[in-house]
Please model this.
Amino acid sequence: MGIINIRAPAVSGELSSLRAGDIVAISGYIYTGRDAAHKRLVECIESGKELPVDLKGQFIYHVGPAPAKPGHASGSAGPTTSYRMDPYTPALLEKGLKAMIGKGFRSATVIESMKKYGAVFFGATGGAAALIARSITKVEIVAYEDLGTEAIHKLYVENFPAIVIIDSQGNNLYESEPLKYRKP
Model:
């Protein structure tokens, strides 16, 4: 199985051919967002305000990047646990979000919303924050600067390593893989 090159943001339907277990290299612009930023985005939606970023086709990486050392675009950028964003995710998917990058399980509600809106969940390797940071070549804060590292950043990434954990059909690597190792 080879590495599949993915461009961000996604063009309509582009991610539908990915399957749980596919290994990808993501290049292009992605956004960051953790709990506080997700909460503010959903508050904007609920109050009818315009979002600070257009989510159509976008990827959100569940991370709060560390400050960059001199000569680097970003400091360590390891994924945070994605289930903390689950209360907010269906509303963002409805607004056009197509991919999330993080780690850990996602709720049944989020998976159903992913299937409905054709989105995928990529896993990034926890513990490899410094390695992942090498894929980040440009960083810009685009919203909620008062949140510090949890502000929404726009990142330009090149060959960001990830694996499809949950595909747009709802196939879930966290469910399928353990079955392979159970004794009959």
Notes: Residues 8 and 111 are 21 Å apart (CA to CA). The two ends are 27 Å apart (CA to CA). Residues 35-46 form the longest helix (12 residues). The helical segments are 35-46, 89-94, 108-117, 129-133, 173-179.
